[in-house]
Design the sequence.
């Protein structure tokens, strides 16, 4: 029997094999549900992806939007306009407009365009840079910008929860502030978790809008909530720290360091509110905070370490010099504060033993204060105890309070029996319409508001009302004590400038 030689198999050409593999892979991916392999559902314009933690049970699913919410989304897509803060920079006092442009010019982070562009349609009102500047105006513009001290990078960290109603106003202000500071100088990090309204849907829309104008933003969402067994302060500290993750990611991956941090809660800010806080922070080389309708006396402490009072504005501060400055709308040095917006020096976040939000070290005998109080204490101990409250900036968490603290100016001379007791109509020290926590938005600046203040070392003791979280109380649950502060925070070194972020001298 004659054996036939075995037939050699032909080898498939490599390009043809690659093509077949690609087609087979594409077919396979279409057959497999995307939910089995997708862990990143959508991506922001920053370098880090937006991760969504999926719910483990159907009870955690977000309900569909209501008809009213759908109409609001349509309005947002059609007009892209804010709802509560749209009047912030409309019909401003011309004197205030001139003062504001002069005051905030060192913050401008871009060159003037040679002709009118979309930048001037952002609704900045009287705070817009000059369109089509003359040669004289351009020279002035560049001279003022040179006072900024060089390129300055801003990192915005924002926590959101059930924020459907405030997101249009928040992003409208972020767009305007970023246009002023320069989009290339701004990075926005948003961490949202546990919302049961349409916050996540709106964030997707505004992420796309931010990318369309070149604004860097990283938005991360999660279904996580506090739960029944989590300590409230530990949970809030973790949520706040989550918004700071891109700060370190940008340093590690891009070697990018930021010069100023702006931490924002879910508030309704005006553009000049944010600019004033940034201006005061750089003028005084400090961290500072807005001054809302005051209620958070669990965190705020004056420079004597005493809790601020939930009282008429003349009686908020126990420290008499601080009370006088507050009533005159001048920045006030405090031991701790956290009101809506906090502008921070980022240096302690970059140190090897970096500062971060935390709960108290109860086992070491530390008073169980708020995570916002503790980070102020840590700033003091790290040698960054220059902390200010800025009474001019009044912030609100909803439209009702916003309208109360931003009333329209009225003609009091038309009221029977009214007599002005001297002074100019817009002098905040004599105008009866102005109060330390409410008044017309366009209050004129005084010379003292532009002067750096002299900081003093921290108090020896701070009034602390702890919250151990051992019982059922949803608030401070232990007797208050006078807690002694570390020696470092009581020394002059604690208020010396270590990271110079100020403007150039004129």
Sequence:
């Amino acid at each position: 029997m004659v054996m036939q030689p075995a037939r050699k198999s032909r080898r498939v050409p490599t390009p043809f094999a690659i093509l077949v593999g690609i087609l087979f892979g594409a077919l396979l991916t279409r057959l497999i549900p995307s939910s089995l392999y997708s862990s990143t559902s959508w991506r922001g314009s920053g370098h880090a992806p937006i991760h969504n933690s999926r719910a483990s049970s159907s009870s955690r699913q977000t309900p569909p939007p209501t008809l009213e919410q759908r109409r609001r989304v349509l309005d947002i897509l059609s007009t892209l306009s804010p709802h509560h803060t749209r009047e912030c920079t409309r019909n401003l006092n011309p004197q205030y407009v001139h003062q504001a442009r002069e005051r905030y010019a060192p913050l401008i982070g871009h060159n003037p365009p040679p002709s009118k562009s979309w930048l001037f349609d952002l609704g900045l009102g009287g705070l817009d840079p000059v369109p089509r500047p003359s040669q004289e105006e351009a020279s002035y513009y560049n001279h003022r910008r040179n006072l900024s001290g060089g390129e300055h990078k801003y990192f915005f960290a924002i926590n959101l929860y059930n924020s459907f109603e405030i997101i249009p106003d928040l992003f409208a202000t972020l767009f305007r502030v970023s246009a002023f500071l320069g989009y290339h100088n701004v990075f926005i990090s948003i961490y949202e978790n546990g919302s049961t309204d349409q916050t996540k849907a709106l964030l997707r829309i505004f992420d796309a809008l931010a990318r369309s104008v070149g604004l860097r933003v990283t938005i991360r969402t999660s279904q996580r909530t506090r739960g029944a067994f989590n300590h409230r302060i530990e949970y809030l500290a973790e949520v706040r720290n989550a918004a700071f993750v891109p700060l370190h990611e940008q340093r590690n991956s891009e070697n990018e360091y930021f010069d100023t941090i702006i931490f924002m809660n879910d508030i309704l800010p005006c553009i000049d509110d944010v600019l004033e806080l940034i201006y005061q922070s750089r003028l005084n080389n400090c961290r500072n905070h807005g001054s809302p309708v005051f209620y958070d006396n669990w965190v705020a402490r004056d420079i004597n370490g005493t809790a601020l009072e939930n009282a008429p504005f003349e009686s908020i501060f126990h420290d008499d010099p601080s009370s006088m400055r507050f009533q005159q709308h001048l920045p006030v040095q405090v031991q701790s504060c956290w009101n809506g917006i906090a502008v921070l020096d980022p240096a302690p976040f970059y140190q090897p033993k970096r500062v971060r939000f935390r709960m108290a070290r109860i086992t070491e005998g530390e008073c169980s204060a708020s995570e916002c109080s503790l980070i102020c204490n840590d700033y003091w101990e790290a040698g960054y105890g220059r902390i200010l409250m800025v009474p001019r900036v009044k912030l609100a968490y909803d439209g009702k309070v916003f309208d109360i603290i931003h009333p329209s100016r009225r003609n009091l001379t038309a009221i029977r029996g009214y007599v002005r007791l001297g002074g100019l109509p817009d002098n905040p020290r004599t105008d009866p319409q102005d109060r330390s926590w409410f008044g017309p938005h366009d209050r004129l600046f005084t010379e003292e508001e532009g002067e750096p203040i002299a900081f003093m070392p921290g108090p020896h003791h701070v009034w602390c009302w702890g919250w151990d979280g051992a019982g059922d109380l949803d608030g401070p649950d232990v007797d208050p004590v006078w807690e002694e502060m570390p020696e470092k925070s009581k020394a002059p070194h604690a208020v010396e400038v270590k990271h110079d972020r100020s403007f150039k001298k004129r």
Remarks:
- Residues 1-9, 33-59, 116-130, 412-424 have pLDDT under 50 and may be disordered.
- The longest strand covers residues 186-193.
- The longest helix spans residues 14-31.
- The radius of gyration is 27 Å.
